[in-house]
Amino acid sequence: MEKFTTFTGIAAPLERSNVDTDQIIPAVYLKRVTKTGFEDALFAGWRQDPEFVLNRAPFQGASVLVAGPDFGTGSSREHAVWALRDFGFRAVLSSRFGDIFRGNSSKQGLLAAQVEEADIAKVWAAIEANPGVEVTINLEERSVRVSDLTVGFSIDDYTRWRLMEGLDDIALTLRNEHKITEFEARRQSWRPQTLPVK
Amino acid sequence: MTEQIAVDVRPRTLAEKVWDDHVVVRGEDGNPDLIYIDLHLVHEVTSPQAFDGLRLAGRPLRRVDLTIATEDHNTPTLNIDRQIADPTSRIQIETLRTNAAEFGVRLHSLGDKEQGIVHVVGPQLGLTMPGITVVCGDSHTSTHGAFGAMAFGIGTSEVEHVMATQTLPLKPFKTMAIRVEGELRPGVTAKDIILAVIAKIGTGGGQGYVLEFCGSAIRSLSMEGRMTICNMSIEAGARAGMVAPDEVTFEYVRGRDHAPTGADWDEAVAYWKTLPTDEGAVFDAEVFLDATDLEPFVTWGTNPGQGVLLSEPVPHPAEMSDPNERAAAERALEYMGLIAGTPMKDIPVDTVFLGSCTNSRIEDLRAAAEVVRGKKKADNVRMLVVPGSARVRLEAEAEGLDQIFQDFGAEWRFAGCSMCLGMNPDQLAPGERCASTSNRNFEGRQGKGGRTHLVSPLVAAATAIRGTLSSPWDLQNDASQGITHDAQDTSTAEREAAL
Ligand code: SF4
């Protein structure tokens, strides 16, 4: 997982609330066998519309999504995070997130930054005044800067630490790799081995 | 130091012992323990993204020698030598083949002698054994707990985690003892026990728990029966089910391809004998079931907790005190096309499915074959017999079971999950009703609009003969009234009619 300390990119406003995981990625895309290549599936139901924000010129290359409240509610599908990530998003700002979505995000290095609803409105206004404007997210300071506006966001300490260190669950476990190796050295020889017997 | 000793002598449950022996790093302050995984089973549906994740991160699969893959969910049960017709199924299976080859994972492909349902393959190879941890991206991994292993299903991110580290960060589960005492009557089986347990504690009753099945009724079961019971622990909401290992377990494991041998065997058995729950160990919850008065059980609704004795009628939702339960029952009856008060035995079925990781082992096939031997199938019923693995199929053929089923009028198929979830072409048509030996009767599980009644292999067989939900007891009743259902009689009658 890439380390996340500060990040600057184009912000796209998604001025809707309750964007559930079925909207983020419809079920039909779950039959795929890959964990990547979901960029076309992101908001598939809305992308038909040429006026949809991510289809408009300055926002096609957006990497920060600024959404209304209750983003990522609904099913547990990790595909929702994969789709956002594959499209190029590194962060989503919202005043409230679905719990499981937030957990899944942290596994994939996508920052789910919780910003006060009033501040989200200010960020939207700043983007509207200057479409294509870049925002800078500082995870260490827990702040978002756009033009001359700076607002704070909240994120729990453990997730912040993991993102700043670029640690996914696997990387975290591998910090104990020597202990795993020690354990394996003690593992009794009667325990199963799958490779063909002869 | 004294504290350490006190911890070591505290009486522990089977689950706690297996857990403790797999802690790589003990989690502090409510953090999860890091648990070592002895055996990772893989199939085509939940593995592709995990392999992809490894590739993306440039990580190797840490222990290919503790990993084994098989094709089961999507595989056809007819014409297995031809290309798989459905492109999504074909791609999932081809992806598993490519991934297994790239990462060096042992794979049993369609057509291979060891191919079959992942939970049938592990035990038959002797890979599943007491005192180990087993995971798979599949909820019915609980099956392997029958050996006294700690076995549970995991999600795709966890599959990747195990592939990369051979461990999982986990918080300890609570423990629940399910004590089943008494002798089962002939015609009553392990399947009836577990259906009765789920009806008793509900589909959420086991949430957060590892269930330990104990008591004389469990001890007297074969390994196949114990697997049936642990398989369906998940249907009670539990993370896992377990049975303490004993001589029955050791005898089952002994001599299998991957079973320990020589000094390893002796060491293993000595250790396995230390695993049963200590006298005085405390469970977080306990449930008791009397097996003596148990009868063949059957579900009437759309979750495995909605079940009754086969001798009972379809229940009346109006009599249910819990409003949620009542609403669920009303919805279920509508979906199932059933009227409250109808005797379960009067319900005709279109299909009988003998298969799935719950009941497709050789013992299940033998038991059902014994019932249908020399009998004639009800005309309006089709019966699918799907062995759990290619090896079970071969064993059954060596014993002539295939012939018994085919003479009876059943279809003898190749191994796989098949109509348990209908990811392959084996599906119910909308409105069709099925007596199924599988584990889930959810809406649409066996095909869109299909209606499922969960039953034991004996009930499945008797139902195929009589055409309505029936048990071997009904066949006995019929016999006492001179109705034999014999194939011979019918053909004689037909011959006479033809003259
Ligand atoms: S037989 Fe059914 S329950 Fe068992 S693994 Fe296959 S699909 Fe799952």
Task: Write a compact overview of the structure shown.
The complex is a heterodimer of chains A (198) and B (499). By secondary structure, chain A is of the alpha/beta class.
What does this structure look like?
The complex is a heterodimer of chains A (198) and B (499). Chain A has 198 residues and is α/β, with parallel strands linked by helices. Chain A has a single domain (6-168), classed as Aconitase, domain 4 (Alpha-Beta Barrel), CATH 3.20.19.10. Helices cover 33% and strands 17% of the residues of chain A. Chain A contains eight helices and seven strands; from the N terminus they run βααβαβαβαβββααα. Chain A has helices at residues 21-24, 44-47, 79-87, 99-108, 117-129, 157-165, 169-174, 177-186, and strands at residues 6-14, 64-67, 91-94, 111-114, 134-138, 143-146, 149-152. Chain A is globular. The model of chain A has no long low-confidence stretch (mean pLDDT 91). Chain B has 499 residues and is of the alpha/beta class. Chain B folds into two domains: 14-290, Aconitase, domain 3 (2-Layer Sandwich); 312-480, Aconitase, domain 3 (2-Layer Sandwich), CATH 3.30.499. Chain B is built from 18 helices and 19 strands. In chain B, the strands form five sheets. A five-stranded parallel sheet of chain B has the order 5-4-3-6-7, sandwiched between helices. The radius of gyration of chain B is 23 Å and the shape is globular. The interface between A and B is large, with 32 and 47 residues. The structure holds iron/sulfur cluster (SF4). Chain B: Keywords: 4Fe-4S, Amino-acid biosynthesis, Branched-chain amino acid biosynthesis, Iron, Iron-sulfur, Leucine biosynthesis, Lyase, Metal-binding. Chain B: Residues 16-467 form the Aconitase/3-isopropylmalate dehydratase large subunit alpha/beta/alpha domain.
